[in-house]
Queue: 2 jobs
Job 1
Amino acid sequence: MRTGQTHLFVPGPTNIPERVRQAMNVPMQDMRAPDFGELTLDLFDGLKRVLRTERARVFMFPGSGTGAWEAAITNTLDPGDRVLMARHGQFSTLWAQMAERLGLEVEVVDAPWGAGVPVKEFARRLGADREGRIKAVFVTHNETATGVTSDVAAVRRALDECFHDALLFVDGVSSIGSIDFRMDDWGVDLAVTGSQKGLMLPAGLGILGVSEKAMAASETATMRRAYFEFADMVKMNAGGYFPYTPPTQLFHGLRASLDLIFEEGLDAVIARHRRLAEGVRRGVQAMGLELVAEHPSLYSNTVSAIRVPPEIDAREVIGAAYSRYNTSFGSGLARLDGRVFRIGHLGDLNEGMCLTALSVAEMALAEAGMQVDFGRGPAAAMSWFTGAAEAPELRVAAE
Amino acid sequence: MRTGQTHLFVPGPTNIPERVRQAMNVPMQDMRAPDFGELTLDLFDGLKRVLRTERARVFMFPGSGTGAWEAAITNTLDPGDRVLMARHGQFSTLWAQMAERLGLEVEVVDAPWGAGVPVKEFARRLGADREGRIKAVFVTHNETATGVTSDVAAVRRALDECFHDALLFVDGVSSIGSIDFRMDDWGVDLAVTGSQKGLMLPAGLGILGVSEKAMAASETATMRRAYFEFADMVKMNAGGYFPYTPPTQLFHGLRASLDLIFEEGLDAVIARHRRLAEGVRRGVQAMGLELVAEHPSLYSNTVSAIRVPPEIDAREVIGAAYSRYNTSFGSGLARLDGRVFRIGHLGDLNEGMCLTALSVAEMALAEAGMQVDFGRGPAAAMSWFTGAAEAPELRVAAE
Amino acid sequence: MRTGQTHLFVPGPTNIPERVRQAMNVPMQDMRAPDFGELTLDLFDGLKRVLRTERARVFMFPGSGTGAWEAAITNTLDPGDRVLMARHGQFSTLWAQMAERLGLEVEVVDAPWGAGVPVKEFARRLGADREGRIKAVFVTHNETATGVTSDVAAVRRALDECFHDALLFVDGVSSIGSIDFRMDDWGVDLAVTGSQKGLMLPAGLGILGVSEKAMAASETATMRRAYFEFADMVKMNAGGYFPYTPPTQLFHGLRASLDLIFEEGLDAVIARHRRLAEGVRRGVQAMGLELVAEHPSLYSNTVSAIRVPPEIDAREVIGAAYSRYNTSFGSGLARLDGRVFRIGHLGDLNEGMCLTALSVAEMALAEAGMQVDFGRGPAAAMSWFTGAAEAPELRVAAE
Amino acid sequence: MRTGQTHLFVPGPTNIPERVRQAMNVPMQDMRAPDFGELTLDLFDGLKRVLRTERARVFMFPGSGTGAWEAAITNTLDPGDRVLMARHGQFSTLWAQMAERLGLEVEVVDAPWGAGVPVKEFARRLGADREGRIKAVFVTHNETATGVTSDVAAVRRALDECFHDALLFVDGVSSIGSIDFRMDDWGVDLAVTGSQKGLMLPAGLGILGVSEKAMAASETATMRRAYFEFADMVKMNAGGYFPYTPPTQLFHGLRASLDLIFEEGLDAVIARHRRLAEGVRRGVQAMGLELVAEHPSLYSNTVSAIRVPPEIDAREVIGAAYSRYNTSFGSGLARLDGRVFRIGHLGDLNEGMCLTALSVAEMALAEAGMQVDFGRGPAAAMSWFTGAAEAPELRVAAE
């Protein structure tokens, strides 16, 4: 029988802070009441602050981040439009699959799982696209499957350098609110996220930032859509209402989570993620394990995908952690299944929790058959957390 | 300042029972844990019992009932398919609008707001459709805007009598779980509902029952879809998982609400709705007001749409109830705006609550300028609830 | 099976406001943490505002109001001390019984159940007590069993007029926070209340206001005490701590309930109780029933004790309300058992709830065999609530 | 700003399991309802199972464990009765102080803080007490201040061996439900506990097991008492009611916590405490620190009191843990202040949490100036938890 706190280290849905849980524990209310907008209108503004945008419009669709992926596509593109996408992990692969299903002509660049978005190849193709046939470029800012953070600003530069007019789509589901994300500075046109990662809520809201340029595109885009129609939302959101029943409890939770983020300070939240992630990585390295991410400049501050030694089955590591230690790690997805386990270190987190993750990881690895020198992982993280270890030069450069 | 219990009588989202609230107040958990299916798999079975189906498959999409509308259409029809729909209230009108947006050729039958689905006209058109050009017939079982319950079984008979093969779509958002609904008996192919009405949960789940025939149609249907794709759900649901992050808290709530329904007994739940609704209607009639529903055989047991006298503005009634008495009534939608207020009487409800609704309605009507003889409404309901009034013959026949 | 909201009209424990429930739903915390006082110290100040005292000290004992009764006695009196008390209801009777058990020499004045504290008789006895043998006078401000509010200020005047030095003990369990109570103005020395009435919390805190004079008495009082020792509390409370583990969740709830009270305004809270109580009383009278309270000047604004006709058993009324209508009324206590039911109308309450109480009362009375003309009770209350009825002259004078 | 889970390792109040939190989050209810006993009566039985008694009666007083101390004394003893007590930690000292305040003649045996109850000295004095002047012997089963578990069975044997008739009082506040406790087998007459330790609830219930012999004594005991009077409770508890407003929410929580205990199995709960405590102790020893408990046979399985090196201030350790790592350790009480910090390891706990405690302890010790070789503490615990370390022979013998 399970006892004690659940140790949740999947890279989403993430731990819900107590204040958010409190806030959501409310009776039902009238979503058409005259003062309903007092609750909702501020949420749009708060999300704009999280996206670091002043010019974009924000949408909250009842659904998941996947729904927001679809909303982004169907509202701004035409059937048959050519789009440029990379596949370098499970989530970028799924987004490309969705684009194909929705009738886009997807120009796919495959990169190793562990690499970032292939900026140079994107730049090359955009430069070669003299007629502007590429209507949109898609970037998975943080590939949750591999623990890789890509350089969105560099993709923007690539577009600008060849004066390319394509829309820039960014999947920020596991980065926004946790890793530096700058919608306006980076000229992101469609920024996708969900409620269940850095926003520390249950799943249920697909969130979308849409630039003025993308809003303009939505007026002429001919792809079929109904549930995810921007225009319906625009009309109702003006007063803080929604075209269909919204998840009111999540709005109360979002109010609380935005308050938490702004009280801590968005920059401080991001710095905390960097600090805690570095502790986890040092612990992992001290255990003698390697990350999937190919280079330190790609390390994700929200999730670490960790390769187990070849003779070990990562599923056994995850299974032991779950069944014996009430601890959930993320599994290796698709081609990484069995080779990788993932530690999500995003959202409502602190040093003690990261040390729990590393300690349980050591025990679970031992139970899966690895020779583990207990304590090395936590020790490396403790040195970092207490300031006894030196800060890494590289990360500063990378961010 | 508002004090005391909120009196929520909108026809959804409905009051959340305490046990459901308790059940949802849980920390986040791993939606890919090996035992996650223990939570979810039973929910599909429970929903089948609520739909009264043994043969259909059930889907739970993160989203609203509107999303389930879309899922039903996009998974089973082809672009340009002809479908037969009626418009006799705001929700049937919106569904027809969605069908058009998604590229269907909608054959619309307009009926008065207050009428039911025009079964005879449907029968006539289906009979005339010798080539089977009509691919689907849509029925809004309970038109929430007008408080009208239509006769789904009669539409099924109309289809059967001319051996018509069209799929039967039914919007049961405000009926399923509250008003008798029989998916198998009535040969419903796509039954749509949401979490926030008879299931007494927050919004956030679009629920769909899909017949074997409709599942077969989904394998060849060519309409574009991604988020709402049945096949992805089928694959993942087998083990109790989902293709994207599901709203786990709602699943816990659904477990509790299904338990409540089955402990009371689905038949008893339906009988209770009938009894409480009759009390409300008697109260309304004792106040000298009329329902929008044209005939007692159409009266909805989940919502009553009530016409105010011509000299009264229903918005003022609703406003007074809300601002002075912490009570939410539903407003008149679209063409009924200002002429109608609605009392939702579905979900977690009892006699005392219905009497509160009637009492506050009397006070709010008085404050909006109507000459009210206080106490008549509640008195009529009390007579009914205590058994001092006779049961209506008509309802028995109608149901 | 019970469905819908529970209609709770016992005169305590009272309905818990949602914000209070939210506030209490927190994980456990360290009651010796350096910042624990940030939570607790303000609570003492808030309670002083509720007691309308600037000079008294406030104690919060883990326990019930009965515990605070005991704390008041054991900390300020010596064994064998003579005290003056009245018995005019169940709670004043129990307090006198406690005083005897604790070794006091209780001079009891018996008055009819339905009368207030016999001020004139108290005055007479105090005037006659030339040697000052009476060490304390006890007043039950609001006798919850009979729905009678007594005149504490008049008892103070009686003391002052004969320059009597006795301590003035007041049981304000069902008045403080709901009915005007003025500790400093009235020279109350020991003001007793609990968390579960006007403070709208679960039971668990016995609350005590102690005047400077009573604090001085506590330094020499020789009655045995340990758990309820003021000195231990004084010492620890200075930093916001407690001599033994306090009910932290209740402190969070108290923070929320004090916020609610001060946001509404204490005067407004009291006015609201008066207004709602008047509605209930008018309803009761319109039903043809009488209150236990002997005179309108004694009517309690927190609870109405209602006599049923002689041929009716009040227990059946209460039973029918509970079993059929999910409604709890208070029962007749001790000698009033079977003759009386009580409607508590205090705490988190509004007009709709009062109308529910009256409506259910009519149905329950009918089911218990009374000939009820349905709707009269609610109608009278509605007239009052909507301002269609005239304000009673008497109440203004009385308060 | 604090983020992430709070790491609570004070030896009470302990972490509240989620199911208990859920259970307590209920609206208020009528504590005199006819079915109220359905909730409460089973609780008495459940507590008897936890106390391992079939013959004793159980009381639940609104209050803290300190209140239950008082209830035990005042209901069974006469003023001036001689009682035998030991002082070997802060809580045994406080109990002795209470006994004196309440007018007992306390024969105190002082023992080192870190020693157990001086069984031999008790035996000697009991043997010498030929006239049976000692009316009661008090044992602090688990001295929370020092992390020492004493041998209650040995005290019983000492009583039996000289055929002494004194009542046996046991403070089991921090043992019952976590450390083996056998009321009937050990002939305990008054077993005291509270809700906020092994029962995993908020503070608010003082719980008492009372043997038949002690119940008989209560009928003639002459000590003054009112709030804590057994007889009032006995009378009302028969139907599941209480003489004053009980903390209903805690009853719901207790239902849940008893369910958790019995689902896991009381023996398994005790074994888990032993296993987790052993891990913590091994970790502490691997850090080079010593426990206050003088001998392994005295080690408490619910709390470890840990001496810091002489040059370190334990308050700084506790302060660093709290302010930097959101972690609460217990402080050194009274004479141990600054010399000791305590890790509570009782209630709802698992391996990961113990490792968090050890990891944070290492960091906090380092920040307080100790030279710490990071990772040693967690490593020793991991070896134990994974079975890589050998089981200690001694513990088996001791328990």
Job 2
Amino acid sequence: MAICVVRAAPMNGIGFEILARDGTARLGRVTTAHGPIETPAFMPVGTAATVKAMTPDSVAATGARIVLGNTYHLMLRPGAERIAALGGLHRFMNWPHAILTDSGGFQVMSLAALRKITEAGVAFRSHLDGSAHLLTPERSVEVQHLLGADITMSFDECTPFPVTREAVESSMELSMRWAERSRAAFAPRPGHGIFGIVQGGVHPDLRQRSAGRLVEIGFDGYAIGGLAIGEGQATTFAMVEASMPSLPQDRPRYLMGVGKPGDIVGAVRRGVDMFDCVIPTRSGRTGQAFTRAGTLNLRNARHADDPAPLDPDCRCPACTGFSRAYLHHLTKAGEILASMLLTRHNLTYYADLMADLRAAIAQGKLSEFAEAIASV
Amino acid sequence: MAICVVRAAPMNGIGFEILARDGTARLGRVTTAHGPIETPAFMPVGTAATVKAMTPDSVAATGARIVLGNTYHLMLRPGAERIAALGGLHRFMNWPHAILTDSGGFQVMSLAALRKITEAGVAFRSHLDGSAHLLTPERSVEVQHLLGADITMSFDECTPFPVTREAVESSMELSMRWAERSRAAFAPRPGHGIFGIVQGGVHPDLRQRSAGRLVEIGFDGYAIGGLAIGEGQATTFAMVEASMPSLPQDRPRYLMGVGKPGDIVGAVRRGVDMFDCVIPTRSGRTGQAFTRAGTLNLRNARHADDPAPLDPDCRCPACTGFSRAYLHHLTKAGEILASMLLTRHNLTYYADLMADLRAAIAQGKLSEFAEAIASV
């Protein structure tokens, strides 16, 4: 006699639950093939299959449960097919939690040489060795599949800023056609999803049109792209506000490349769930530290004799083990340990900020929390 | 009624016990104010108050219980008085175990500008900012006291190689006068000691005379200096052999700046107890890895697709968490994590080599062990 076990077919895509709301802000949980992510969440940037100056253990110790990998960098070095043959990006970089990969669209515009944009995609030469490549929506999605991304981003064109409205509109329309091709190229599977990216520059009506078009196509989540590139915080927030009404409530929202703590707090209040930014990691490598009392430049001579920790309320090893005087010394001496400790601290600061935001939403106290942060 | 508690006065100096012998090799234990060190021991180099690319926790996790700090670097930046005001070097760098500081003699010869050697000491200008300094035996010992070294090294002149016998002899005699002044300047205290340094270049009779002179002065331990600077392994070993008979059995012996694994094994067989060298740390930062199957250059393209760990028998995070392909990628991409992981691996390799040497001495199997190592 055969025993029949009936299992519900696993759901394609990623899960998203909203656990609490405070105004337009949401406390949520994204569920991926590599575990859950409590939102609002910050994603440390792991460009070349490493969050710079951090071991994966130490990234996880900050509280991060998702990192961002850069498709452009990884397809050029070490190569997407190579990473796939080695078992995928999670195994390659020994990161057991979730990974979101960008589409390569932003970096191909900012880093590649001799790039030529056509309806098909972007032809370019590698900034590393001059080799010729073609990145299309289909190839971008394929690369992200080879990497094993839990969250794939659709391929888009990133328009520079400032630029004419006509150029923004034409670029956004191209990105929407590429979004449709990205979605079609994406192989649905359990625990993996693809996000569309709202474009439209600093024009609210273009943002609305873009968001509406993406929702027609249908994505697992929606990103807001092409911001934090010089337009200023007020405009960034205005574009978030313009995009939000068109986006479904039951899907996560990701504001790309943002930002400083105040930018994140403001965007969370406007309903954003996910963020990535190089600021905490890059700042750490140049001697900058975020603290509850403001930002410190460790290169400054006023820290040379200071026995106090960076931030007495921080749980990270840089704060529990060392003085500002020591961190100043390491920074001045150009020691690798300066980058290691300050990156660890800044990512802990960001992770704790997100945890505090989540707690504030759960308690319905986001406004008070945001005002307390802003007064620093 | 008064209760009188009689306590034995704590012994000045550092302790040293010999637990087993195998030929002229010794298994021992050095006891300092910051804990015991099982010998033969390797001391990672922490030049500027950090073992480069390592947190103190990760240094201790390799098994190291003593690190070396560089007097020359620390007196110039951040300054010995500053470190003393901040609670000493142990607290400054958050290293709870023992520290040996060199005297500054070697670095002042190799790094400082406009140096002028007189009977008094060495006048020089800082390689960092051109400021004028005078390093004497008394100032060297004072700086090491300010740093809080468990083991202080007497100030000596390091003669270059090759050089005439007359120059070596004259330099050695100067170093012996400086050794006497260093010893006199050293304040004896429990758990802290001062080592003399045998000089004499590649001349066995000068080495013997130097060792004899140091023993007359009387030190807590004896170092053999001025070697591993181009004379070749056979000559290094010959100079160790020439120095040993004059040195007391009951005091630790330290071969400065040595070396590669084979150098260490050979010196342990000749009765050396302590070593320091930049090779494992510096090699790690240039993509070199020591393994039980030989040395690997991770920059080599043959590792690009290799899913195997660096060394399947190694317990370190670089070997348990990552492939050669990943380490190759990090090295080629110039990622800080390459330096972190390869330094961790190399220091683990050295710590395990020392543990294996200690086990072999305890079992009376040092010859077999040394032959097995040499056949790799």
